[in-house]
Amino acid sequence: MHELQIASNLVNAVMDAAKEYKNATKIETVHLSIGKLSFVGEEQLRFCWGAITDEREILKGSELIISDEEVEISCSSCGYVGDLEVSEDPLYHYMMPIFACPKCKGDVEITKGNGVTITNIKLMIDDGEETDG
Fold this sequence. Notes:
Blueprint (H helix, E strand, L loop, with lengths): L1 H18 L4 E12 L6 H12 L9 E7 L2 E4 L5 E2 L2 E5 L4 E5 L9 E5 L3 E10 L8
Parallel strand pairs: 1-2
Antiparallel strand pairs: 1-8, 3-4, 3-7, 5-6
Helix pairs in contact: 1-2
């Protein structure tokens, strides 16, 4: 389950970012972009996130807000930039990506859609002022 390792890495990155704000008291939301080629299970990641963040007061109850990142490839031969082709495997009924240029069948580089990125973190900061509630 690579989602556990990903969740652990995300927690470390969020905690490092929170250290930049000396008065951070609570992390409310973490926005993620997950590439379709990362094959990260969203529900598994949420489960792992909840289990890990329950151990840290500043993260306890924080919410993951996840958006999908589409795949983009570029071809070094013909200059194609766009989506990756997929074909269905009839034996397993699974969509398999084809890592070749859809125009010239040349080698491609994946330029988007294969990673997990923190795009935003919302945190609460204690400004030291007391307010009547």
